[in-house]
Automatic annotation (TrEMBL):
<dbReference type="Pfam" id="PF20240">
    <property type="entry name" value="DUF6597"/>
</dbReference>
<feature type="domain" description="HTH araC/xylS-type">
    <location>
        <begin position="159"/>
        <end position="258"/>
    </location>
</feature>
<keyword id="KW-0238">DNA-binding</keyword>
<dbReference type="InterPro" id="IPR018060">
    <property type="entry name" value="HTH_AraC"/>
</dbReference>
<dbReference type="InterPro" id="IPR009057">
    <property type="entry name" value="Homeodomain-like_sf"/>
</dbReference>
<keyword id="KW-0804">Transcription</keyword>
<dbReference type="InterPro" id="IPR046532">
    <property type="entry name" value="DUF6597"/>
</dbReference>
<protein>
    <submittedName>
        <fullName>Helix-turn-helix domain-containing protein</fullName>
    </submittedName>
</protein>
<dbReference type="Pfam" id="PF12833">
    <property type="entry name" value="HTH_18"/>
</dbReference>
<keyword id="KW-0805">Transcription regulation</keyword>
């Protein structure tokens, strides 16, 4: 279930996700970038980050923040699953905390390392609440408290660059971005990476891929993959497939046929009981 935040939190939080699954079988889940960072609360059992000869190798923290991803990550759910995910806007974490988002790229960090005792308290309280409305109320209160004391940050360059890249669906050149913002390429890249966690070109590639996904899911029988490739700014179909597989670990056809989508970028990658 996906729920949007209240209006005052929408500049920082894109949406909340509430995912539930019953059963004790192992489920492999794949997360790939959608251009946003997030916080995961695993309320029933810890997610598993890897296996060694089908034996658990390591667990992820009960709650953790994940930074921007360069490609995809696989995790496993080994028992009944109850997950709450806070999906931030691309530069929402930087706005709320004033942190350099580039330092979190491809990282998983415990919630208490970011929020201290407030984070530990939030995790504990979420596990005691059984309904989505109650959990929403708690999360909104937590982030409204952070918003009220957030540091002052200069978001002009990052905000303008984000708006330009998203408006153009990831199809742009750095020269165009320089002309649009009036700042140098080096300054734009530094401020954008600080706010978003990726440089403008890498972020733009993710936006292009998700625009492609939207067109792919809505395509008619008469629409070819090649025509969608050109429309979304890829030079040819082979270039698109290469980029798509780099970010998702699968081909566009495999993604389209996958029935285990929890969200657009968080999916079950093979049937249950496969391990």
């Amino acid at each position: 279930m996906q729920v949007v935040p209240p209006k005052e939190l929408s500049p920082y939080i894109k949406h909340y996700l509430f995912l539930e699954r019953k059963g004790n079988d192992i489920q492999k889940l794949r997360l790939f970038s959608d251009g946003n960072t997030g916080i995961v609360f695993s309320l029933k059992s810890k997610l598993i980050s890897g296996f060694d000869n089908y034996k658990t190798q390591s667990y992820l923290p009960t709650s953790f923040l994940y930074g921007q991803l360069n490609n995809f990550k696989d995790v496993y759910s080994g028992s009944e699953m109850s997950i709450v995910i806070v999906v931030f806007q691309p530069n929402g974490l930087h706005q709320l905390l004033g942190v350099d988002s580039g330092e979190f790229r491809d990282s998983i960090i415990t919630v208490d390392a970011i929020f201290g005792q407030m984070g530990r308290d939030l995790e504990e309280k979420l596990t005691t609440l059984l309904t989505i409305p109650d959990r929403l109320q708690l999360l909104n209160h937590f982030f409204k408290t952070l918003e009220a004391k957030k540091p002052q940050t200069n978001q002009l360059i990052a905000d303008a660059s984000l708006a330009f890249i998203i408006k153009n669906k990831g199809q742009f050149s750095l020269k165009q971005l320089v002309a649009y913002t009036g700042y140098t390429e080096r300054h734009i890249e530094r401020k954008f990476t600080e706010g978003v966690g990726l440089n403008p070109k890498k972020f733009g590639n993710i936006i292009k891929l998700h625009h492609f996904l939207k067109l792919l899911k809505n395509k008619t029988e008469n629409t070819s993959l090649t025509s969608i490739s050109y429309e979304t700014g890829f030079s040819d179909q082979s270039h698109l497939i290469k980029e798509f597989k780099k970010h998702t670990g699968m081909t566009p056809s495999e993604y389209l046929l996958n029935t285990g989508k929890l969200t657009n970028n968080f999916i079950e990658t093979f049937p249950k009981n496969a391990l």
